[in-house]
Each structure stands twice: as structure tokens, then as C-alpha cells.
Amino acid sequence: MIEKFSTGIEGLDQLTDGGFLRGSAYIIQGPPGAGKTILANQFCYAHVRSGGRALYMTLLAESSSRMLNYVSQMGFFEGSALPDAMQYISGYGVLEREGLPGLLKLVQHELKRHRATAMVLDGTFVAQSVASENEFRAFIHALQGVAGMADAVLVMLTHQNRDSSCPEHTMVDGWIELSDETSGFRAYRTIQVRKHRGAAILPGKHRVRITQQGLAVFPRVESTLEATPAANASRHRVASGHAGLDTLLQGGLPAGSATLLVGPTGAGKTTLGLHFLSLSTEQEPGLMLGFYETPAHLLQKARSIAIDLDSPIRQGALDIRWLPPAENVVDELIRDIVNRARARKVKRVFIDGLVAIRDSLVIPDRMPYVINALSMQLGALGASVVYTSEIPEMQLDQALMPTDELSAMVDNVLLLNTGRRANAFRRYLSVIKLRDSDFDPRTHEFHVDGHGIAFGPDPRVAAIREAG
């Protein structure tokens, strides 16, 4: 079995089924600023940390010291690796004087002299500019052989947008493409493994972010979902945090299921979610992710209606996280939720605001598949999850998602609606769907008082009528 070297990037290792194959050659293609140089350096320093030796040869006029000034600011940089295990050299002068034959000899010589098991050739497009197409193809073919003979990984960087039909792509073992893309006013980066011999790659485009720690790759969550059900599918019920609602649900929410609370602003969705979180304990830890209300505001809201979240937080049984509803990378967000739930052995998850997740998606049509993947991963951890989703108060029937989308996303659907009757604002709750379970199909009026949600008409309305 051929040894694999980690790329130094967890997400890229997932895309490539474990990393680069030893003795193989790869082309990494992308426009200036897409992250090619960062990726290549990140790979080299990860390789050195694992005991290998790396060589970075640049064909650009830019000096190695100038590149080091930038790379040394990154979190993956290891100054102690220089110049022994990690070495930078320039092939620019040799290429100018001796052309491709001289460069090929230099690559062979430096690989052997440095005893490198990984090498980067930065600026392959420069080599192409000094030769004919046939000469360049022969050069790439020769480099492939050099990598095999040296039993090293060779990574070639180019900013030229070469078509998939170009012969050099058939010669190398792998081809990775980085892109800068726009959607409306939004700019974002993607990565795609176009080819990787001997590996079960994750196809398609995936999001990329450049951070102080280097390049971060976030595989699309729906592409990483394993078709494995929860180990022990439980048939017991999980208390919703509200006894009246549990009665409507014939005992509570099915354990390990995903529930959607859908309704207009002010319908009581977040309040019901706070009831759910209030039962978080050391045995059943809870986790909340919100986008519109900060933790301080949520705690103040809970206190005002006698929902105790302070105790589980103080005991370490409840973790409340907040993200502004900006242009979040949804696949990163979901990875972090699942990792946090796994680390804390969370059993209750409340995500307040699916609209913020939908609006962060570059391709909104991914929404059902993304939420399904999140629900499946949390369910496999034994967690029950509750989501909220905002819909307009008017035209309620038209605002609900199609049945197939709802079925793909969640197991249970509760509709919280509002209306005006007898000159008063009223709230209503209906159970639309409950996984493999019977439930009360009637619509029930409720209100919010000093103890949270209470079923039945608001007594204040009757008092006002009597006073009138």
C-alpha cells in the first residue's frame, strides 16, 4: 500500500482521502491570491513536523526572503525547521540560462542533495512560458518520473487556468483547483480535487477560508455524511421542557429526533426553545446556537418569564453560543456545532434561526441537505435538536416549505402562528408532524406570562373586555 502524506489541512485530507501519495506529482492551480502558496507552505511544514524533509523551489522573481517574511506570520510556520529540514531555493536563474533541461537537472540534484521527501515547484507557468507546448508536456512527464524515482511528493503550483483536457493533467497523479468566485456582491474561495489517482475523493467544490493559522478547508457537510444510522435507535421520549406541550406530543419529543418550530415573529419560538434548554443537566447537557439575540439578552429574557437557565450554565450543563448573522461559512459552522456537541456529550441542542443559515449559503438550494446532515450527525451522537425558522405572518400556508423539503430536514414540525381576534393579539400552536408517533392534531391557543408559555386564552384579554 502506498504511503500517504497529510496535506497539513484537515479538510483537504478529507477531500483527498488521506492526503498526497508518496512518489506522486500534483498540480495545484488557481488565480493569484487564491491561497496556493499558503497551501504549499502549510503542507511542507506539516510534513517536516511529521519527520519528513521538504524543499521549496520558486521559479518566480520574488526572493525566498520576501516569501519568508509573509509565511513567518502564519501559525503553521516553524522557524526551527530552517534551513535543515525545510529549505527554500530559487530556480529562476537556472531556468533563464539553461531552460527546461537545466531546471530538470536542478530539481533532480536538489531533491537528492537535500534528501527531500516533499518538494514544491512554485511558478510552473514560468517554465511553460520559455518552451513550446510539446517541450512543456515532456517536462511535466519527466517531473512525474523524478517524483517516482525519488519516492517523494512533488507539488507544482500554477496560476494559469489550464483546461481539463490539457495533456499535463493526464500525466500527473493529482490535480487540485483553487478558485476566487463571486455571487452578487459576495466573494468567496473554493477548492476542488479534480483528480487524485488511487483515492476516493470527495467531488465537487468546497469552501475555503484563509486564516492566521493558514488555509482552512470545509468539505460540504452533505458530502461527508456517512450512511450509518444511530447505533442504538431509542424509542423513549425527551421532555420538551413544558408539561402541556408534552401532553400534546403524547409524552415528549422522540429521542434523537430533529424538531422545527416554525412561525412568524413574536409567535413564541425562542421561548419554547428556552423551555427545552431549561432541562439541561450534567447527565443531559445542552447547547444553543443563536444569531439574533446575544447570550446576555437571552438570559435576561429567560429570567423575566421564570425560565431558569442560570443554574445549568453555572453547573456547566448548558453552553450558549452566539454568532452575528453575517456571511458565515455554513460548513465550518456545522463542523463546530458537531465537534462541540461530541466533546461535551450534548443531549439537547437548540439552534435559533435557520434563516441565518440559509442566508449564509451561497447556494440556498443546499439548505435541506445541509440541515439533514446536521440532524443526522447530532442524532448519531444521541442528541435531540430543536430548530426555529421565521416565516411571514401573512400567507402562512404559502410560506411553509414544501413537504419533501421538510421531510428531508427534520422529523417533527410544530407550527406557532399568530392572529388578531376580538381586538387582541393571540398565539396558536399546532403539531403538524411527529416522527412515527401519535399526537394531538388540534390547534391550541396559548400565551406567554410570567412563567413562560401557558396554554389557553390570555386572561388579560378577558380582564380588558370586562373592564370595557
Report what the structure shows.
This protein has 468 residues and is an alpha/beta fold. Helices cover 36% and strands 26% of the residues. The chain is built from 18 helices and 22 strands. A nine-stranded mixed beta sheet has the order 5-4-6-7-3-8-9-10-11, sandwiched between helices. The protein has a nine-stranded mixed beta sheet with strand order 16-15-17-18-14-19-20-21-22, with helices on both faces. The chain has a two-stranded antiparallel sheet with strand order 1-2. Strand 19 and strand 20 form a beta hairpin. It starts with a strand and ends with a helix.
What's the number of extended β-strand segments? 22
Shape descriptor reads elongated
Compute the average pLDDT: 90
How many helices in DSSP terms?
A: 18
How would you write the strand order of the largest sheet?
5-4-6-7-3-8-9-10-11
| Percent helix range | 25-40%
Which residues form runs of ≥5 with pLDDT under 50? none
Radius of gyration: 28 Å
- β-strand percent reads 25-35%
Distance between the termini: 85 Å
Q: Determine the oligomeric state from the structure.
A: single chain
Structural category? alpha/beta
Main beta sheet strand tally, sense and closure: 9 strands, mixed
